[in-house]
Design brief:
By secondary structure, the protein is an alpha/beta fold. It has 10 helices and 7 strands. The strands form 2 sheets. The chain has a 5-stranded parallel beta sheet with strand order 2-1-5-6-7, sandwiched between helices. Helix 3 runs parallel beside helix 10 and helix 8 runs parallel beside helix 9. The chain is globular.
């Protein structure tokens, strides 16, 4: 009688072990791969990769097949991919056609970048703000061959008012509106916004890069402020920020040609002055891709 009464308990115990083992096996099963994204790349020349071979799309946009968007699309196995990045683009060119020119020659227009967004878009990358704030033009104005000259910073901060800080502040609400519009047009999209890179190390490297050391620090400080502004707007508008400035330490324009991610005033690699080279675009693609995959695995 005791053996008979114990039988149900034995059966229950065995069943429990089987269930536990099944749970372990299920838990050990690999996670399902993320679906291939429908990817749209938006942005300016930092994203388009001007003068990096090979060119695709309008010549005046300087869009390279080796920019970070193309490399990222390949890495992710994108189900569809549309790259509308274009040199000279600012936030206004996201919603309106962009006027194109090359060496002062009118090259027509290209459609508003947001025209590429669709309801089934699932990934959007955006790099914008450099042209809204005019930082490349400022850097060009700050080129200085005379080490005894007055810092160009003085002309941009006269009277205690930093003109570039004002431009960055004016850019912030434009980026906020742009991010909200992306979500409206592509409600399924994961929106990723990059900052800008480390262009020159602390203290500069005159005359390797012909900019006074005080101006080098001031300009990179303005880039850093722009990146902080982009990060804050991304956080406030359901987008993910990718920092490419911090990983760029040791890869700025002061470094050897084989180490640079960003070119200086006179490029040593095929790329536009003061822009990423192919190595930089590949590095940015890797940084963005790693962050996307890490977030997916979390």
């Amino acid at each position: 009688m005791q053996l008979l009464s114990a039988q149900p308990r034995i059966v229950a115990a065995v069943a429990g072990c089987v269930a536990a083992a099944a749970a372990v096996l299920v838990g050990a099963a690999p996670a399902a791969a993320a679906p291939a994204p429908h990817y749209v790349a938006l942005g300016d020349s930092m994203a388009s990769g001007p003068l990096i071979p090979d060119i695709t799309g309008p010549v005046a946009c300087g869009r390279s097949t080796r920019n970070y968007a193309h490399l990222l699309a390949s890495r992710l196995g994108a189900a569809s991919f549309t790259d509308v990045t274009c040199s000279g683009a600012d936030t206004g060119d996201l919603t309106s056609p962009q006027k194109l020119s090359l060496a002062g020659i009118d090259m027509g227009t290209t459609p508003a970048q947001f025209d590429a967004l669709r309801s089934d878009t699932t990934l959007v990358t955006l790099t914008v703000g450099g042209n809204d704030t005019g930082l490349v033009g400022v850097a060009q104005n700050c080129m200085q061959l005379d080490p005894t000259a007055d810092p160009c910073k003085d002309s941009y901060t006269a009277g205690g008012v930093d003109q570039i800080v004002q431009r960055i502040a004016a850019f912030a609400p434009k980026l906020a509106t742009a991010l909200d519009t992306i979500h409206q047009r592509s409600p399924q999209a994961r929106v990723v916004v990059t900052g800008y890179g480390l262009y020159i190390k602390h203290g500069g490297c005159w005359p390797v890069q012909p900019i006074l050391n005080v101006d080098a620090d001031w300009l990179q400080g303005e880039v850093h402020l722009l990146n902080q502004t982009i990060a804050a707007q991304a956080a406030a508008h359901a987008a993910e920020y990718v920092d490419v400035e911090t990983p760029g330490v040791g890869h700025d324009a002061c470094q050897s040609p084989s180490q640079r991610w960003l070119e200086g005033y006179v490029p040593t690699n095929l790329a536009a002055p003061l822009h990423p080279n192919a190595r930089g675009e590949a590095a940015y693609a890797g940084i963005i891709g790693d962050q996307l995959e890490d977030a997916s695995d979390a």
